[in-house]
Design brief:
about 375 residues; alpha/beta; 2 domains; 3-stranded antiparallel β-sheet; 14 helices; 13 strands; globular; dTDP-4-amino-4,6-dideoxygalactose transaminase activity; EC 2.6.1.59
Length: about 375
């Protein structure tokens, strides 16, 4: 069986995890945690990065940090993972879903302004497949209406928009290091990028159960106390050690994924030109990270037939999100702004192909061969 995904392995993970175990510092903010955070601060050019147990935790931190209150409204696409919405619903917010663009599956930036009301507090762009949303438009709207921008860049590590790292453009960015992502912290993990320096001190407090424990360990206060709302949002240093092995090879992993992505694109372009399916679109100002490769079939029936065909060849492919606005919780906690022109119909056409760092050339040839046979 060729899996849909396999966590990246570089070879140094076990050694670094043993080093973390020997250090006697397995909880959060150990040596590997600080090393990883500094790496992202330098690589993404942001003032503060804080590792978290997951991207879900990072999004929850962001909702706390911008003081989301019951009755507030938060704008986002419906085509996203449930954590994007849950983080704000937990604070009592109402989710306002906006349609996606059919070319990138990102939120349609031209529809956001019509969804803004006096209750709107934040816009949450989701960089689907590591392809950037139109951040210039989104940031201009945020400035015009005095809104926060929380980037859900779970899939966007090592991607950029006009040369600026995804996650570093809005007021706060959220990364994922789940095992399905390009880089993993041993299965789970996340990071919160604090791009507004005025939010850093409170972000540290929220992450440390609402205490000023971080200041205490830096010698800035003689004792730490409960200061604010918060929770336990620290990644263990054991996970950070696994992640550090990945980051040492970040460019190698990125280049390999981009090569695999291009192999798919080149091999399948002739069939796409014949109108058999649609290939991913990359905006001119976006440098993507080859997080995924997907096809859009004619309709859901065609997509399901292809998934079955590949499964019979022992190749696992998957479709992606069921739009949140059509789910029971989405109907309860949110509403769709405007018309659902593309979110549902485009999501029903999309199928994701196997894509991961350790996918071999031979395995990819088998996948491509099976695809060519299906469409013949």
């Amino acid at each position: 069986m060729i899996p849909f995904n396999a966590p990246p392995v570089t070879g140094s993970e076990a050694d670094y995890m043993h080093s973390a175990m020997a250090s006697g510092k397995l909880c959060g903010d150990g040596g590997f945690t600080r090393r990883v955070q500094q790496w992202f601060e330098q690589r993404c050019h942001v003032p503060k990065v804080l590792l978290t147990p997951s991207c879900t935790a990072s999004l929850e931190m962001a909702a706390l940090l911008i003081n989301i209150q019951p009755g507030d409204e938060v704008i986002m696409p419906s085509y996203t993972f449930v954590s994007t919405a849950n983080a704000f619903v937990l604070r009592g917010a109402k989710i306002i879903f906006v349609d996606v663009r059919p070319d990138t599956m990102n939120i349609d930036e031209t529809l956001i302004e019509a969804a803004i009301t006096e209750k709107t507090r934040a816009i949450v762009p989701v960089h689907y497949a590591g392809v950037a949303c139109e951040m210039d438009v989104i940031m201009a709207l945020a400035d015009k209406y005095k809104l926060y921008v929380i980037e859900d860049a779970a899939q966007g590590v090592m991607s950029s928009w006009k040369g600026q790292s995804l996650g570093s453009i809005g007021h706060i960015g959220c990364f994922s290091f789940h095992e399905t992502k390009n880089y993993t912290a041993g299965g789970e993990g996340g990071a919160t990028l604090i791009n507004d320096p005025t939010l850093i001190e409170r972000a540290e407090v929220i992450r440390e159960k609402g205490t000023n424990r971080s200041q205490f360990f830096r010698g800035q206060v003689d004792k730490y106390t409960w200061r604010d709302l918060g929770s336990s949002y620290l990644m263990s240093d054991l996970q950070a050690a696994y992640l550090w092995a990945q980051l040492e090879n970040a460019d190698l992993i990125n280049q390999r994924r981009l090569a695999l992505w291009q192999n798919y694109y080149d091999a399948l372009s002739p069939l796409a030109d014949q109108g058999r399916f649609t290939l991913p679109t990359l905006p001119a100002d976006c440098q993507h990270n080859a997080h995924m490769f997907y096809l859009k079939l004619r309709d859901q029936e065609d997509r399901d037939h292809l998934i079955t065909w590949l499964k019979e060849a022992e190749i696992l492919s998957v479709f992606h999100y069921i739009p949140l606005h059509s789910s029971p919780a989405g109907l309860q906690f949110g509403e769709f702004s405007g018309e659902d022109c593309y979110t549902t119909v485009e999501s029903e056409r999309l199928v994701r192909l196997p894509m991961y760092y350790n996918l071999t050339d031979n395995q990819q040839k088998i996948v491509i061969g099976s695809l060519l046979s299906f469409f013949s």
